[in-house]
Amino acid sequence: MATRSLADLDVFDNGAPWDLFAELRANDPVNWSDETDGGSGFWSVMRYHDIVKVLRDPETFTSSHFTNLEELEPDQEEARRSLLDSDGTRHRALRRLLQNDFTPNNVAKYETFLRGLTATTLDNAFAKGEFDFLHDVAADYPIRVLARLLEIPDTDIENIIRWGNAMIGSSDPSLTDLLPTDPESEKYRLVPFRSPAALEVFAYGDELKRQRLGRNGTDIISTMINSVPMDGKPLTDQEYHTNFLLLIVAGHETTRQTIAHTMNNLMNNPEVIAYLQENPQDIPWAVEEFLRYASPIYHFRRTATKDVEFGGKEIKAGQKVVTWFASGNRDPEVFADPEKMIPTRMPNEHMTFGRGGPHMCLGNALARIELIIMFEDVIRRIDKMERTGPMDFVHSNFIHGIKSMPVKVTLR
């Protein structure tokens, strides 16, 4: 039985504890973790097929009591609720409002822009010879894509990166000035992540709203504020705030982590680089393996709506049920040689974007085209890339995050 706890953030300080995931999958696939930060503990679901069952049963395992581990009072839930933390009719209406901007056909319109942006990003980084891949490539690229989608100026990009770091890295003292466990955070209890950065995001979103309200813009913000969801209920100020914040955070954070992890994984598997240089037509399919192998989000939480027997365990109504996507992506019952990076793996029904259910990642088509274009260019150009120092990981059991990744590159 595992002695390390999935509730202990220190377990994640050197990246994903793949060995612990494997141990739990094999010996205790639905297991309980006590929390020491005031939380009431949670059930963890480790196996792929069990995770899918949870995701596809929102009546038993709801998102409406939030999808991270923090336990909220009813007033906090209502104040912080976004698309991610909704179920039922309102969730479907909000999702429908935004989904047209993220269809494969719509994101394909950005291909020329993405190829130009990729080339510029890599030109600037590679010209240095030695650089921080996380900062100069992985962070720079998707945030500029987001800026284009939201039609916001490049001069605002540094602020958006800073806000995203502070919120996603809210458990990491090097990324935030105020940890959620600090009593001082109580004054921010009604905003996402208990983070003062959320208030800055709200104020920024309000200024964009003021500029675009009542006009005929076609950007995502204009759609949010000038359209009525299909249930006939206009977005409230609270819904605009939290869903704008969700776009700001989710719109670049997971993609940048996938890019960084993928480059690290390719450096660890140079034979994959060599194969894809000889077979560049396989890169669009190899991206599915990049996504599986990276697993940029460790988990999403659900909450049991009733007492239920699951995986041989008795789960009580109100208990937290955590689906470990990163573990599911390495489940040997689904993926042969799961610890091996196989660019031609087929089928490859990874769960990096979820796996069915109402909360399948809205931006998956955009993320895929960003990754395809980035790695077509990277793999075409490099002879070798190697780390020049240790990697620094985010102190978190939610985001599988890299904070720095110093490298040097030799071009072909």
From TrEMBL:
Belongs to the cytochrome P450 family. The keyword ATP-binding does not apply. Keywords: Heme, Iron, Metal-binding, Monooxygenase, Oxidoreductase. This is Cytochrome P450. Gene3D superfamilies: Cytochrome P450 (1.10.630.10). It comes from Aurantimicrobium minutum. GO terms for molecular function: heme binding; iron ion binding; monooxygenase activity; oxidoreductase activity, acting on paired donors, with incorporation or reduction of molecular oxygen. It comes from the Bacteria. CDD domains: CYP142-like.
